[in-house]
Description:
This is Response regulator transcription factor. The structure is a single chain. By secondary structure, the chain is of the alpha/beta class. The protein has 9 helices and 11 strands. The strands form 3 sheets. A 5-stranded parallel beta sheet has the order 2-1-3-4-5, with helices on both faces. A 4-stranded antiparallel beta sheet has the order 6-7-8-9. Strands 10-11 form a two-stranded antiparallel ribbon. Helix 1 links the parallel strand 1 (2-5) and strand 2 (26-29). The longest helix is centred in the C-terminal third of the chain and has 17 residues, at 189-205.
Amino acid sequence: MIVVVDNRELVTSGYQSLFAREGVSTATFHSSEFRDWVETAPDADISAVEAFLLGDFDERAGCPRVIRSRSTAPMIALSESRNLDGTLDLFAAGVDDVVAKPVHVKEILARVGAIRRRENAETTRTVVGEICVYQDGRDAEVAGKAMALPRRERRILEYLVANRGRRVSKQQLFNAIYGIFDENVEENVIESHISKLRKKLKMRLGYDPVSSKRYLGYGIGVE
């Protein structure tokens, strides 16, 4: 999920629509609401955020400090014009990247991926049993072979592997895949995605690596 912060509804709704076309969920905030949300949102909601996209608003310079108190997700600031002093101020405030508008959402996603790869330079992959998940955009490997998955099934697998050794709830998975404010999708759709993913993994491995317990959730590498 990408969090977009801007005081102009036209901007936030525009990005929400554009990211949706790329299969990426978003949550949008007015700057007056954003700080309160970051400080009070449940950990499950914060952990679902893949990146923060900060538009042009007066309180922006204070956002990185607030965000970093809860999240390590990449922060990208949007610049309305090319201004060296303004760009330097934003980097000094703690953002990870500054992008001049107009910019395509695919470029934003590519920049988010690049930031995450730099941060995970020492751990570009995570291995759990016969499953290997990469942080650089490559397909996961299962039983030594690449496995191409639909975006949402792939994101579920990545989320489960990232949280290996512990269980995650259906709500946590839903938040990570669809965003915390998507009221147009039923939470139970996650069960369908997980069922399809588990069948594919079982066909490749000969067993189901995902365990589930009622009321506790799903997990990989969990007894």
